């Protein structure tokens, strides 16, 4: 039996969400067919480390709004496969499970000898973007491939051990609670015993909380680095790019609406996902390199990259936010900055200090390091 925690998690480019937690790999494909608020609610319910044994029960209440989902989970019974909607699970090149349109298939499948892919039936030939490796967390992507199963047979089955320990703890907790329920009615509180009252803090909306200051910076610098841009409001008053087809927060269509431009703080425009899985939100610009100087501009943050062969220059490139656009700029690097040209299957080198605007899905190479840019905006073609 293989432990899926030790497998590489290769992300496929596409419109969707991929996620991995201990013992779990999950894909929600084709975002335009799913309810965005329901997806956000589902991931809030799942939390940081959902239990493989309880995953189906957590997902079930959300199926009316999320119609294209698949996962595999390492459970007591083996490798559990769960699919609903136009999605399939492919094991060693053969379809093991394919989702029905309006119901759920939940079954146990054999462990792969080589690889397993969770992918939409509408894009069965989707290829992973090498060398991105998702081990834990959530990322944009259209499909997810778990690979190198043959190389992890030697590892102990840690998931089984962890599940067994948690199951034992749960049994002990239930037994203790049963004892308390039996004894509690027999205990009478004396009249002179102190009465206690629980005092809880009021409920706080996480969106109202300010982020913690970046290390070595005072909290007052958060406002200094904030950039205001002109945008429009959706019917629910979410701030958006004036060219947006859909609201980046609630997903409502912005077409055929009359908008008055307003000035507001620029929101996070997207994410850059590096080849080692490291992800950075584009709420500000970045100076990227082996050890770049701290820019004078407070809206630009330093992002240090490490690479054993030293193909990254000290000051290699900038990710620059210009109004609502994201641009990449080579800063005179020794080994160059390249953009992958998908139609021609070639790498195009950037000229020094000439900004190039990039779109969602663009792959950038810096020396021997690489990242993919994914926008938070939902395009009309998604």
Short summary of the structure?
The chain has helices at 36-46, 55-59, 158-183, 221-224, and strands spanning 8-12, 16-21, 24-29, 69-75, 78-84, 87-91, 94-98, 104-109, 116-120, 128-133, 137-140, 143-147, 228-233, 239-240, 262-265, 270-274, 279-281, 285-289, 300-304, 317-322, 325-330, 337-341, 346-349, 356-357, 363-366, 369-375. With 382 residues, the protein is mostly beta strands.
Model description:
The structure is a single chain. The protein is mainly β and 382 residues long. It folds into 2 domains: 4-152; 220-382, Tumour Suppressor Smad4 (Sandwich), CATH 2.60.200. Helices cover 12% and strands 34% of the residues. The chain is built from 4 helices and 26 strands. The protein has a 6-stranded antiparallel sheet with strand order 7-6-9-12-1-10, with no helix packed on it. Strands 8-5-4-3-2-11 form a 6-stranded antiparallel sheet. Strand 6 (87-91) and strand 7 form a beta hairpin. Mean pLDDT is 77; it is low at 152-165 and 186-222.
């Amino acid at each position: 039996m293989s432990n899926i925690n030790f497998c590489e998690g290769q992300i496929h480019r596409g419109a969707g969400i991929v996620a991995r937690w201990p013992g779990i790999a999950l894909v929600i494909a084709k975002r335009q067919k799913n309810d965005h608020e329901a997806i956000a609610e589902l991931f809030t319910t799942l939390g940081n480390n959902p239990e493989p044994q309880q995953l189906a029960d957590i997902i079930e209440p959300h199926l009316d709004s999320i119609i294209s989902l698949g996962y595999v989970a390492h459970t007591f019974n083996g490798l559990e496969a769960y699919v609903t909607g136009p999605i399939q699970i492919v094991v060693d090149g053969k379809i093991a499970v394919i989702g029905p349109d309006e119901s759920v298939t939940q079954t146990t499948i054999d462990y792969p000898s080589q690889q397993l892919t969770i992918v939409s039936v509408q894009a069965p030939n989707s290829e992973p973007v090498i060398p991105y490796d998702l081990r834990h967390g959530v990322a944009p992507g259209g499909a997810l491939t778990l690979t190198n199963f043959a190389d992890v047979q030697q590892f102990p089955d840690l998931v089984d051990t962890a599940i067994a320990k948690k199951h034992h703890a749960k049994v002990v907790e239930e037994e203790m609670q049963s004892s308390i329920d039996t004894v509690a009615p027999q205990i009478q509180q004396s009249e002179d015993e102190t009465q206690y009252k629980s005092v809880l803090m009021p409920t706080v909306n996480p969106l109202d909380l300010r982020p913690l200051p970046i290390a070595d910076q005072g909290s007052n610098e958060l406002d200094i680095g904030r950039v205001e841009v002109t945008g429009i409001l959706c019917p629910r008053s979410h701030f958006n790019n004036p060219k947006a087809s859909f609201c980046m927060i609630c997903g409502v269509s912005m077409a055929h609406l009359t908008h008055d431009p307003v000035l507001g703080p620029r929101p996070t425009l997207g994410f850059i996902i590096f080849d080692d899985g490291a992800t950075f939100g584009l709420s500000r610009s970045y100076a990227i390199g082996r050890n770049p100087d701290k820019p004078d501009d407070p809206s630009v943050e330093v992002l240090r990259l490490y690479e054993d062969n030293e193909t990254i220059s000290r000051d290699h490139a900038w990710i620059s936010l210009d109004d609502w656009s994201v641009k990449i700029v080579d800063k005179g690097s020794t080994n160059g900055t390249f953009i992958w040209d998908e139609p021609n299957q070639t790498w195009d080198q950037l000229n020094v200090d000439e900004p190039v605007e990039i779109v969602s899905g663009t792959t950038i190479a810096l020396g021997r390091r690489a990242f993919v840019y994914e926008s938070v905006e939902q395009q009309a073609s998604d």
